[in-house]
Write a structure and sequence with these properties.
It is built from 4 helices and 58 strands. The chain has about 625 residues and is mainly beta. It has a domain of about 170 residues. The structure holds calcium ion.
C-alpha cells in the first residue's frame, strides 16, 4: 500500500511539472515577493560572479558550493520553496558537490522543495588543456607538468566536444588470438607479424573481449620471435570462463596507448613519463582552434541521506553534466564481470609472493558521476549527461520515488543510468525514468549497459529510447536463480530500443535475471539487433537465469539476426500478444537454452513480414494506454 502512495506521489510530481515552469516565469517578472509563488529564497550563481557578492541576479555568486552554503545559512520569515539559479556558463568542479538532508526540502506539514535550475548551465569535471604546438606528421603536443609529476592521469579526452580516440592498434576492427598459452591466462600467441614491439610498452593497455565483458590490462612483453604476448597478472577475472579461450579459441583484442599507435586523425596519446599530450589533428583543426578537455574528477554530485532521514525534495532542472574521470583500478587491471561490475587484483605482501601472487578483490561497480544514496522524492528534470569516464547517474541505496524525466545520456564510459543495489540490502523502490534518451553508453567498458536495474521494487522505465549500445540496452535483476529476492514489479514500458548488442554477445535490447513477480516488459519497439561475433546469441530480449514471473506483451521485435526471444534456465513466464518478424530462412522465434518449454506460456503472438507485422502492431496498440507512437 505504501508503494502505491509513493507511486501516486511521483505522478503528482509529473503533474506539477508545468506549474513549476509558471512559478519560475512569474518570479522572473515580479520578483520573489509574488504572493502566488511559494519561493521564499532565491540565489543566483554565474561563472563570472563573485562569492563575496550577495548572490542576487545582478550580483551573483561564483560557485555552486557558495549558493548551497547560503541556502543552508539564510533564515527566512516564512517556510517555503528555495531555489538556486545557475546562470549561463560552465561551472568547473575540482571536487564533487555534496548534498545532505539539510540541503533538500521536506515532505512533512508544509511541503518544501529545493530547486537547482540551470539557464544554459553546465557542471563539468573537466579541465581545459591548451598550449599545443606542432609536433610533425599532423600532430600537436603540449606539456602537462601535473602528469609528469604523477598528480594527474586521464584516459578520456574530448576535442571540440567529441570523445577523441585513445591511440589504438589496429585502428578499426580487432586482432584475433592465434592460440592461448598453456595456463590460459597470462599469455597468448598472436598471429605472425600482427604485432610489433613498441618503445613505450609499459604504457600500453590490452583490451580483451570476452563474450559479454572485457578485460583491460597492462602488457608485460611482446615477443616477436615466439609471437607471444604476456600480461603482468592475467587476462580475465575469477571464473574459468574468463580464460583466454573461455568462450572461443580466437578471441578479439586490440592494444591502446602507445605513441606508435598515434597514426590516424582524431587519436591522442598521453606520455605519462614525459608529461606530454599528443593529438593528431583532423581536417580543419589547428593547434589554435582545438578546444581540448580532459577530466579531473570522477564524481560531480553526491547526495546521501540516511535510512531514517533521506535527502528529499531536491530537484535538479535543466542542467548539463559533463566530463568525469574513470576510476583507476588496482594495478590498472579491470576484469569485467557483468553490466559494469568487476573484480580487480589485490597484491599479496608476503615474503614469498615474488610479486606474482594476488587475490581477487570483488567490486560491484564503480561509484557514479552523480551518486544518490538514501534519497527520496527528488528529480533530475530535463538534464543532460555527457562525456563521462565511467558510470553516469546511480539511484542507489534505499532510493525511493525519484524521477528522472526528459533527460539525455550520451557518451558514457560504463552504465548510463543505474537504479538499485547489487544485493537485497537497501532496496530501491518506485523510481521512474521517463521520456529520456540513452545513447552510446559503455564506451570504455563495453560490457556495461544503457540502463541497469538491480534488485529493486517497482522501477519503471517508461517511454525511453536506448540505442547504440555495445552490449545490452536495459538490464533488470541481479540474481541467477529463481529464489525470491526483493526484486518485483519492475517495468519496461513503451520504450524504443534499437541498435543494441553492437559489439559483445549474450545479451539483448532487454536482459533479465531472477524471479521478479509482477514485472512487465510491454509495448516496446525493438529492432536492429545484429549478428554478433561472440559465442552466444544476442536477442531482442534475453530472459536469462532464473527469470520468472514476467509478462512480456505487446512488443514489436523485428530485424533481430537471432530469435527475438531467448530463455536460459528460466522459470514460468508469459509471452502474449507480441509481434515478431524474422528472416524467413531463420524462422525460430524462441530459443530455449536449458529452459523447459512448458515453463513459457506463448499466447497470441503474431508473426509475418515486416510491413505486415508493423501495421498489425500499430493497429493493435493504438487504443491502449501505452502507445509507443505518442513519444
Ligand atoms: Ca591508431
Amino acid at each position: 500500500m505504501k508503494n502505491r502512495v509513493l507511486m501516486l506521489f511521483v505522478f503528482f510530481l509529473l503533474l506539477l511539472y508545468p506549474l513549476r515552469q509558471t512559478v519560475w516565469a512569474d518570479a522572473e517578472v515580479k520578483g520573489n515577493t509574488d504572493n502566488n509563488s511559494n519561493i521564499v529564497l532565491s540565489f543566483y550563481v554565474s561563472p563570472e560572479g563573485n562569492d563575496s557578492d550577495p548572490g542576487t541576479k545582478e550580483k551573483p555568486f561564483k560557485t555552486i558550493a557558495k549558493a548551497q552554503e547560503a541556502l543552508r545559512n539564510t533564515k527566512t520569515e516564512k517556510e517555503g520553496d528555495k531555489e538556486v539559479h545557475l546562470l549561463s556558463g560552465t561551472y568547473l568542479l575540482t571536487e564533487p558537490l555534496r548534498f545532505t538532508p539539510e540541503d533538500g526540502g521536506t515532505i512533512d506539514k508544509a511541503y518544501r522543495q529545493v530547486f537547482y535550475e540551470g539557464h544554459n548551465a553546465v557542471i563539468s569535471g573537466g579541465k581545459r588543456i591548451s598550449g599545443f604546438v606542432p609536433a610533425g606528421e599532423g600532430c600537436v603536443v603540449t606539456d602537462l607538468p601535473e602528469v609528469k609529476a604523477g598528480n594527474w592521469f586521464f584516459r578520456d579526452l574530448y576535442v571540440n566536444d567529441v570523445r577523441a580516440v585513445r591511440a589504438r592498434f589496429p585502428n578499426t576492427d580487432f586482432l584475433r588470438v592465434d592460440k592461448t598459452g598453456e595456463d590460459h591466462r597470462t599469455h597468448f600467441f598472436f598471429q605472425p607479424e600482427k604485432l610489433k614491439p613498441v618503445a613505450d610498452l609499459d604504457q600500453v593497455e590490452l583490451v580483451f573481449l570476452h563474450d559479454w565483458s572485457i578485460t583491460r590490462t597492462p602488457v608485460l612483453s611482446i615477443d616477436t620471435a615466439t609471437n607471444k604476448l604476456t600480461v603482468p597478472l592475467q587476462i580475465g577475472g575469477d571464473l574459468a570462463f574468463w580464460n583466454i579461450d573461455g568462450f572461443e579459441p580466437h578471441a578479439r583484442y586490440f592494444l591502446e596507448n602507445s605513441k606508435a599507435y598515434l597514426d590516424v586523425p582524431g587519436e591522442w596519446f598521453l606520455d605519462t613519463k614525459e608529461g606530454k599530450l599528443y593529438y593528431k589533428l583532423k581536417e580543419g583543426e589547428t593547434a589554435d582552434n582545438i578546444k581540448v578537455i580532459a577530466p579531473v574528477v570522477s564524481q560531480l554530485i553526491i547526495a546521501e541521506g540516511t535510512e531514517t532521514k533521506p535527502v528529499t525534495n531536491l530537484h535538479f532542472c535543466n542542467l548539463g553534466f559533463e566530463h568525469t574521470a574513470f576510476n583507476e583500478k588496482s594495478e590498472k587491471t579491470y576484469w569485467g564481470r557483468q553490466a559494469g561490475t568487476f573484480c580487480e587484483p589485490v597484491m599479496r605482501n608476503t615474503p614469498n609472493d615474488k610479486g606474482k601472487m594476488f587475490d581477487y578483490h570483488f567490486v560491484n561497480a564503480a561509484p557514479a558521476a552523480i551518486q544518490w544514496d538514501f534519497v527520496s522524492n527528488c528529480t533530475m528534470d530535463e538534464c543532460t549527461f555527457r562525456h563521462f569516464g565511467e558510470n553516469g547517474l546511480w539511484l542507489g541505496k534505499s532510493c525511493c520515488a525519484n524521477l528522472i524525466l526528459k533527460c539525455s545520456f550520451e557518451d558514457i564510459g560504463a552504465n548510463a543510468v543505474m537504479i538499485g543495489t547489487h544485493n537485497e540490502n537497501h532496496t530501491a523502490k518506485c523510481n521512474v525514468i521517463s521520456f529520456s534518451k540513452v545513447t552510446k553508453p559503455a564506451q570504455t567498458l563495453y560490457g556495461a549497459v544503457g540502463i541497469w536495474i538491480g534488485l529493486t521494487e517497482n522501477s519503471t522505465v517508461d517511454r525511453c529510447e536506448v540505442y547504440d549500445t555495445p552490449y545490452t540496452g536495459v538490464s533488470l535483476g541481479w540474481s541467477w536463480n529463481d529464489t525470491p529476492t526483493t526484486a518485483k514489479e519492475n517495468m519496461v514500458l513503451g520504450c524504443h530500443l534499437h541498435h543494441c548488442m553492437l559489439l559483445l554477445s549474450d545479451g539483448g535490447a532487454i536482459y533479465t535475471l531472477g524471479r521478479q513477480p509482477g514485472s512487465r516488459l510491454g509495448f516496446n519497439n525493438i529492432h536492429d539487433i545484429p549478428r554478433n561475433i561472440g559465442r552466444a546469441e544476442s536477442n531482442g530480449m534475453f530472459l536469462d537465469e532464473g527469470t520468472t514471473e514476467f509478462t512480456i506483451d505487446y512488443n514489436l521485435i523485428i530485424d533481430t539476426f537471432q530469435p527475438p526471444l531467448r530463455f536460459h534456465r528460466a522459470g514460468k513466464n508469459l509471452a502474449e500478444n507480441n509481434f515478431f518478424s524474422r528472416n524467413e530462412e531463420k524462422p525460430a522465434l524462441v530459443t530455449y537454452n536449458n529452459t523447459p518449454e512448458e515453463n513459457i506460456t506463448l499466447k497470441q503472438n503474431e508473426t509475418g513480414t515486416k510491413e505486415k507485422i508493423i501495421d498489425l502492431f500499430r493497429n493493435t496498440v493504438k487504443n491502449k494506454i501505452f502507445d509507443y507512437r505518442t513519444r
